[in-house]
Each structure stands twice: as C-alpha cells, then as structure tokens.
Amino acid sequence: MKSLKISLWIFLPLLFLSGAKGDQDFYMANFVAEKNELEATEPFEQLLGGEVYFENTLHTNKEGIPFATLSLKFVDDGLSEEHMMEFLITRKNQSSPIKKGKYGVEEDIDGFINDFDGVFGFANVKSLGEKPFFAKKGEVVITEITNLRLIGYLDVTLKCTNGTKILIKRGFNAAKKNG
After folding, report:
1. Nearby residues of 145 by Cβ (< 8 Å), 6 or more positions away
2. pTM of the predicted model as reported, rounded to 2 decimal places
3. 133 Cβ neighbours under 8 A, 6+ residues apart
4. What percent of the chain is predicted at pLDDT more than 90?
5. Helices (H), 25-166
6. What is the spatial distance between Cα 92 and Cα 77, in angstroms, rounded to a whole number?
7. Measuring CA to CA, how many Å separate 21 from each of 76, 146, 167?
8. CA 23 to the chain's CA centroid
9. Fewer CB within 10 Å of terminal CB in the chain, N or C?
10. What are the start-end ranges of the H helices in the chain?
11. No. of H helices and E strands in the chain?
C-alpha cells in the first residue's frame, strides 16, 4: 500500500506535465467547452499584469456637445503588438474629466465611439484567430484617480464573433500616458 502511494506521487505529476503545451503565444487555462469560455491566464495574464496606461481627455463633438473620454490601455513589452487590450470610458454632456466610479459596458454602440455613455472594450489576440474580442458585459470600476495614477478593477466579459469568451476579473494600477 505504501509503495502504491509513493508511485502515485511520482507518476501523477508526470501525467500532468506530459499534457502541458509548449511555447504558446497565448494560453487560456480553464477552457470550459460546454460554455465556450476562457479564463484569462498565462501570457494573457502577462498582458493584464504588465504596463497599464491611461489618458483622461475632454472633447467637443461637431454639434458642440462636450464629452469626456478615459482610455485605459494594457501593454506588455514581452508580447508582440498582436496581443493588446484597451477600454474607452466615455461620458456624453460632460465638460470635466472622468472621475472615480462604476462604468458599465455599453453592449450596443450605435454610431461613433464619442456618441455613447459607458465602456467600449476590445482585445486583439492573434493566437486565438484573426477576429477581435469586444466587451459584451461587465464594468470598469475606478477607485482612485489623480493626474498621474489611476487604480481600479475590471469585471468584464469579452466575446469574439465565433462565440468564444474571455472572462476578466482583476485589479489594475495605471500610470498617466506620457506624450
């Protein structure tokens, strides 16, 4: 019985290691085939855990209506430009910068991006195919914002046109974009 336990402790890890994938640009653990969903992990986690920049700007559309836009961009020097993710928070009729608060994903955006209230998000993940992922539900929450720093968290589902989803639930700490 003791030798059986020892054998299991030796062979069980080998069993798990033998199924591991090699150098992948993008790997999603916890793929749920029945739901066609992916949880963001490994190189995509590197993207989420890498550099995060924000830019908080004010604009006026051609009708003279003011709007504020906050751009939140996730970048990782270790990954190519084939992997990127960005969220835009836009508020119509607002002449002051975006402040802390909850901002929900706008599912049906009609017209140009500056003509909506809410969050528009997208991710390009070439290793999962040529089609981009777009935010379909969830929220971006800003818990602290200054001229140089933005802290918050994401609880967002991104979806590709083929139905594949990426679920993201994590905090972020962004620096102001220079230049």
Report:
1. 56, 98, 99, 100, 151
2. 0.71
3. 122, 123, 124, 125, 158, 159, 160, 164, 165, 166
4. 28
5. 43-49
6. 34
7. 21, 42, 21
8. 22
9. C
10. 2-18, 43-49
11. 2, 9
Q: Is 31 in a helix, a strand, or coil? A: coil
Short-list 5, 4, 2, 42, CA closest to 127: 42
Residues 50-84 have pLDDT tens digits of: 678 999 999 998 889 899 999 999 876 665 566 67
Q: Looking up tokens 């949880």, which residue turns up?
A: 39
* Residue 44: per-residue pLDDT: 59
Torsion of CA 28, 33, 34, 35, to 10 degrees: 30
What per-residue confidence (pLDDT) applies to 168?
84
In the structure encoding, which two tokens stand for residue 173, read together?
A: 């700490």
- Max intra-chain CA distance, the chain: 80
Given the structure tokens 């967002």, which residue do they identify? 156
Q: Which amino acid is at 101?
A: G
Place of tokens 């604009």: 59
Length of the chain (residues): 179
Q: Which two three-digit tokens encode residue 24?
A: 């992948």
